[in-house]
Design brief:
two-stranded antiparallel sheet, binds zinc ion, 289 residues
Length: 289
C-alpha cells in the first residue's frame, strides 16, 4: 500500500477498522501514535491484542503440501546440511522435529527425519525419530516374513544394543558400520600417505635380498647396468652403502663386489681401492709380479 504523504483521519480510521494496532498504523502512515489512540477512543474501536503465532502456527505457515501427502518446507534451511530449520522466539528448531511433536505430542528421541521418498519432507505423518523408525522397520520386517533378528553379528557384537534395520527391513550392525567407516577412512589416509623411508640405509635394506653363499641380490633399480639407489631426489651407490654398513667406514675410490656374483651387495663381498691394492700386492707377493 503506498504511503500517503499526509495521512488523514479517514486513512487512520480505515486501518483501525481493519484491525491494525496503533503502533502499526503510526509506523505505516507515519503519524503520531497519540493521534491514532485518540481516534480509536473517539470512534470506540477496541484495541487489538495481536496474538503472536504459536510455534506450530509459525511452522505451518512455512510448509506447502505436495502430491502424495508430503509437506515441503519453504522456510529457512541450515546452510551446510540444507536441513529445514525454523527460528522461534530466539531459539532454533528442526522443522522435522516440530512435525514429530505435532504428530506424537512428545519430544523425539534421536534424530528426526522422514522415511518417505520426498526429500526432507516435514509431513507429521511421514517423519519419525530413531526409535520410531526402527519400530516401523521391525513391523515391515515382520510383514515381509523375514527371519528373527540375530543375537550377534558376524563379528560378535550384541544386536540388542547395536542391531538396526534398513528402511526395507534388512538387519545390519551399527557397530560394524561405524568400524567399517573408520577403517575405510584410515585406509584412505594410509594410501594418501606414501610410505616414507627414514634414511638411505632403510631404502638399502628394503632392496637388499640375502641369497645363498652370503651373496645379497639388489632388487632395487639400476642405472647404466649398476645398482642404483634413489633417496630424496639424490642417487647413491648401493655398493658404497653396503660397504659402509659392513666395515663401518666410508669406502675409498671405486667400490664393487669381489665375490664373482654380478651386482652382489653383500658388504663383506665388496672391495674399495685400498683393499683391491692390498689384494693385488698379496697376489704379486705370492705369484710374483
Ligand atoms: Zn513425505
Ligand atoms: Zn557388528
Ligand atoms: Zn657376493
Amino acid at each position: 500500500m503506498p504511503t500517503p504523504l499526509y495521512a488523514t483521519d479517514t486513512d487512520i480510521l480505515a486501518m483501525l477498522r481493519d484491525g491494525y494496532s496503533n503502533q502499526r498504523i503510526s509506523r505505516e502512515l507515519r503519524v503520531d501514535k497519540v493521534r491514532v489512540a485518540r481516534l480509536r477512543r473517539a470512534h470506540d474501536i477496541p484495541n487489538v491484542v495481536l496474538q503472536p503465532l504459536t510455534l506450530e502456527q509459525k511452522w505451518a505457515t512455512r510448509t506447502r503440501p505436495v502430491d502424495g501427502g508430503h509437506l515441503e518446507w519453504i522456510g529457512e534451511r541450515a546452510k551446510a546440511t540444507n536441513t529445514p530449520v525454523m527460528r522461534y522466539k530466539e531459539a532454533g528448531y528442526s522443522a522435522a522435529a516440530i512435525a514429530f511433536e505435532i504428530k506424537h505430542g512428545r519430544r523425539p528421541q534421536g534424530y528426526v527425519r522422514a522415511d518417505c521418498d520426498f526429500k526432507q519432507c516435514v509431513a507429521p505423518d511421514h517423519v519419525n525419530d530413531e526409535a520410531g523408525r526402527q519400530e516401523a522397520r521391525r513391523r515391515l520386517r515382520a510383514e515381509l516374513g523375514l527371519d528373527d533378528l540375530p543375537e550377534k553379528c558376524v563379528r560378535g557384537h550384541d544386536q540388542a544394543e547395536h542391531g538396526r534395520l534398513e528402511p526395507d527391513g534388512r538387519a545390519y550392525c551399527q557397530q560394524c558400520k561405524v568400524l567399517d567407516k573408520r577403517a575405510q577412512r584410515a585406509g584412505t589416509a594410509a594410501r594418501r600417505r606414501k610410505p616414507q623411508a627414514a634414511s638411505v640405509e632403510d631404502v638399502f635394506r628394503r632392496n637388499a635380498e640375502p641369497i645363498e653363499d652370503g651373496h645379497v641380490r639388489w632388487t632395487g633399480s639400476f642405472a647404466h647396468n649398476t645398482p642404483n639407489l634413489r633417496f630424496q631426489h639424490a642417487n647413491y651407490s648401493p655398493y658404497r652403502i653396503a660397504f659402509r654398513l659392513h666395515y663401518g667406514r666410508e669406502p675409498e675410490g671405486r667400490t664393487q663386489p669381489a665375490c664373482g656374483m654380478p651386482h652382489c651387495v653383500a658388504g663383506a663381498h665388496l672391495e674399495d681401492r685400498p683393499m683391491r691394492q692390498r689384494t693385488n700386492s698379496l697376489y704379486d707377493a705370492i705369484f710374483g709380479a
